[in-house]
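Database export, one record per block. Field names are fixed; values are copied verbatim from the stored entry.
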Amino acid sequence: MKVDDFDYKLPEELIAQTPLVKRDDSRLMVLNKETGEVEHKHFYDILDYLKEGDTLVLNDTKVLPARLIGVKEETGAVIEILLLKNIEKDIWECLVKPARRVKVGTIVSFGEGKLKAKCIDTFDKGMIHVELIYDGILMEILEELGTMPLPPYIHEKLEDQSRYQTVYAKEVGSAAAPTAGLHFTKELLQKIKDKGVNIVYITLHVGLGTFRPVQVENIEEHEMHSEYYQMSREVADVLNETKKNGGRIIAVGTTSTRTLETIRRDHNQFVECSGWTDIFIYPGFEFKAIDCLITNFHLPKSTLVMLVSALAGREHILNAYKIAVEEKYRFFSFGDAMFIQ
């Protein structure tokens, strides 16, 4: 299977640059994964497609305001650092630019010295390890000095930083938002609950590898990045009970999907666990965990398009995306949603 098999043409003006005023006003394409049939709705209509006894699985990860602009202490050169992953204590894996200006021993200062990052190791493609130096509570300092690490295709400034967080975001650690969840409001979640649908939360901290282009021609040769996940015993019990009773498990987003499928693959059931997953889901994959998926519209040739193609079929997905372009749906992180049932 070739990467080009998952390409489609997208006019640039359809890439959503800002979120809608009301989260659940976004459009919703409903795709039947068996027939390929498409319906056009709004996201608040998702209520009509959920049934009593279903379980909705949400990723409660919270995005770090991890984009920091500082200056190199020795020269005053402007340096941008993006915190990706906490390795241990105050040691972080980061992306830096311009990478050529940062060597082992370089110190970058933020907020007039309120936070400093000392480079302790360098790698390819702008990846470095830094030791963070500060007084106080790191998360409070990041809230003050950092901004949301928006994807590179978003060029507009985000006026309200909370719009790149889900309304249920709780566990800090993501380098990007689980964007399928951005459409939910607290009111909509309450209506879903009132209908007899279980709502459970798992955690997967989204890494920037999600956005990295596939750089091999044959997708089978692609190596996925690793992301940290965890599931509680209470959630595992609800999911096992849902399966037993014939209810549907509906994943909100590809991150929830990857977590659920990893756990079922490794344990044949849902269990309390945590760890790192590098699961790569593409056509031919046998789904053992999820029945339906709420997701956004993804980048051409991305691993995320491959994942939804595995669930609904490549032809059905590419046809649905073609219709979405014709109907001028909004694409990517701040764009519209799709419900694959």
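Remark 1: The longest strand covers residues 78-88.
Remark 2: The chain has a mean pLDDT of 95.
End of record.
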